[in-house]
Fold:
Amino acid sequence: MKIVYTRPKCLKPVPNHYCPGCGHSIIHRLICELVDEMNMRGRIICIPPAGCAVLAYNYFDFDMCESAHGRGCAIATGFKRAQPDRIIFTYQGDGDMAAIGTAETLHAANRGEKITSIFVNNAVYGMTGGQMAPTTMIGQKTTTSPYGRRTEVEGYPLKITELIATLPGAAYVVRTSLANPAKIRETKKAIKKAFEVQMAGAGYSLVEVLSPCPTNWKVSPREAFAYLEEKMEKEYPIGVMKDYTAKKDK
Structure:
């Protein structure tokens, strides 16, 4: 029998700590497949700040450097400027990138730092108990918004990806989803393009990935993927928001 699907070489053969139905394990695999396929293992460095993926170094078998909460893009900037031949990417959640790390992220993008960010958005603080995040949707219930998010009290969901797309230093900005296999394949294509944009030295690249969190959404994994497509994709439309190559093609 021909084997057509195996574990990527740079994904460690260890059990992971993620909850059943969590999207992090899917994204981890996509990244490792690309690192193998693009022969980047000896060049790539991942910067994971705090959040559910804080232990990503237990799974990625390539260079890693932990950063303080929200400081991913600041640390990545230092690495890239010191070692411009390396491929540097941050792996950040919505609480990390859209709350405590907003300033670092926006300024890195505005400066056109030649780094890549993979932004995992599940609309809730996953690691610390399911509190409301900047990306929590209107009416969405969390441990700190038990009656649902209210615009008059907590304001509106922060769409960090749309903000970054307006900045001149951002070269490639896209939002994808893990809602079904076809969209997962599109997510892999987007991450690959983001790495290619960095290799071309075009500027900052960002891939936002809408990801399920069954534990903190209080639903089953099956229901979480349906919620992702039926609810989150309406609030956060998927698609390419900025692509410097499109300008070159015209």
